[in-house]
Amino acid sequence: MKVLVTGGLGFIGSHTVVELCNEGFEVVIIDNLSNSSKEVLTRLKKIVDRDILFENIDLKEKDKVVDFFNRHKDIKGVIHFAASKAVGESVQKPLLYYENNLTTLIYILQEFSKKEKAAFIFSSSCTVYGQVDMLPITENVPLKPAESPYANTKQIGEEIIRDLCKVQENLKAISLRYFNPIGAHESSTIGELPIGMPQNLVPFITQTAIGLREQLLVFGDNYPTRDGTCIRDYIHVVDLAKAHLVALKRVLEDTQESNYEIFNLGTGTGRTVLEVISSFEKVSGKKLNYKITDRRTGDVTVTYADIEHANYVLGWKAEKSLDDAMRSAWKWEQKITSNKL
Predict the structure, then answer these.
(1) What global pTM score does this model have?
(2) Residue 340: pLDDT over 60
(3) Choosing from 150, 178, 260, 304, which is the catalytic residue?
């Protein structure tokens, strides 16, 4: 069975490709390499020991999307990761985010939804919730106004899919609202590989520890939390990748309760920035040079998931710990810095 993974050379996408291949799916990757590298494809083939189809396509070019689906009429499922994803950058470049994250989704759905049966998994985000009033966050809480253009593109993306599912019974979709993915594959062959300045906490931690960055900046220590730093629900990327496989099977096997479903993906436990730093220092044996600085625009104070819906309805649960994730991220950083890939 052939599955398209857009953004499949990115952090979460590449780990999901591994899980799909391990389950016998034929995978086609689309990636425009704007935030990834062609080298990831070579590493993926090394892990799964099989060929993987790849096409370098910018999904904002509608004619190329149409041509792709005309050439790959046997695609049964799409897992859509391709999007710009940095909260801070989206505040500075809102039009880039609206164009890249929404037009690509629309163009794919326009073509893929023409099929008699279309299974679609959407890479959403906990940022759709905004600053909630109650914790942990369930899928049913009313969404607050988005705190950033990035978050708004995820809210709008979900609305687009929901509206389409209402009028097209052939389209069956699941939106996965994941919290904060971290870590790397156990082989240290793939992991998070930001281009330029890291936008996420963990690669900034590992790059600081390895000496690529002089200092780690912690954005704010005056939040109303147990140590003053923001709280997030950090989930191992391998656990997250496995959830996409479970979700895809649920749609393909037609076991959904409705043709559009939403699930939180997290651990159910919130960790502060300083607790993540402490975990890294414990598993690596290295002290980090970090500095408290001003708050960052677009950041919410606390987010962590209620995961009962994913556990009992989707049939998935995170298995790896924060220490597991930090240990794998550190091994990955050491390997890529030593150029031993």
Answers:
(1) 0.95
(2) no
(3) 150
